[in-house]
Amino acid sequence: MTPQSLFPESQTERVEALDQEIVRLIHGQPGGPFEQCLSSDEQAVLSAIRFRRGAKNAVTIREMRSRLQLSDREIKGIVRALRISWHLPIGSSKDSVDGGYFLILSAEDQEVFDANFLDQIRAQVQAHRCVSGPARTRELLGQLSLEVAK
């Protein structure tokens, strides 16, 4: 059995479809799974990320903060909302030189996002294990596993 690709259409088709969705959202039209409209700050953040296609073209949070006059916390919260509420494939990289936010358009971009995500999870698990002990950490990881399976 051949595994299903994360990116079943061609990259060109994927970019075009994603860009059409982004344009609709930036221009105040409803979108995403809940047919909601973006706030003006969400529109601004999405506009800043729109042409940052792939991990190698990431926009840094410093650039966004300067351009949009938003705090790091506000930008991070907006990116989280764009990912969760609108299901937009926005990746992030913690690379100290080229890190930032980008649109995930390839398997390689997904790998960069996954690696950073796993690093964050490992760091949080390690901190929790040190504070709460291994048994409590295993219990919480079991709960998390059930939540992911939903």
Lateral strand order in the biggest sheet? 1-2
Question: Could you say how many structural domains there are in total?
Answer: 1
Give the helix level as a range of percent.
55-70%
Mean pLDDT: 90
Radius of gyration: 17 Å
Overall structural class, as computed from helix and strand content, comes to mainly alpha
Number of helices: 6
- H-E order: HHHHEEHH
How many beta strands in the DSSP annotation? 2
- Unreliable runs: none
Globally, the shape reads globular
- Report on the biggest sheet: 2 strands, antiparallel
Tell me what the structure shows.
It is a single chain. This protein is mostly helical and 150 residues long. 19% of the residues are buried. The model has no long low-confidence stretch (mean pLDDT 90). It has one domain. Helix 2 (40-50) packs across helix 4 and helix 5 (107-132) runs antiparallel to helix 6. The chain has 6 helices and 2 strands; from the N terminus they run H-H-H-H-E-E-H-H. It is 61% helix and 5% strand. A two-stranded antiparallel ribbon has the order 1-2. Strand 1 and strand 2 form a beta hairpin. The chain is globular, with a radius of gyration of 17 Å.
What structural keywords apply?
150 residues; mainly alpha; two-stranded antiparallel ribbon; 2 strands; 5% strand; globular
Fold blueprint:
Layout (H helix, E strand, L loop, with lengths): L10 H16 L13 H11 L10 H8 L3 H15 L3 E4 L6 E4 L3 H26 L1 H16 L1
Helix pairs in contact: 1-2, 2-4, 5-6
Task: Summarize the model shown.
The chain is mainly alpha-helical. The chain is built from six helices and two strands; from the N terminus they run ααααββαα. It has a two-stranded antiparallel ribbon with strand order 1-2.
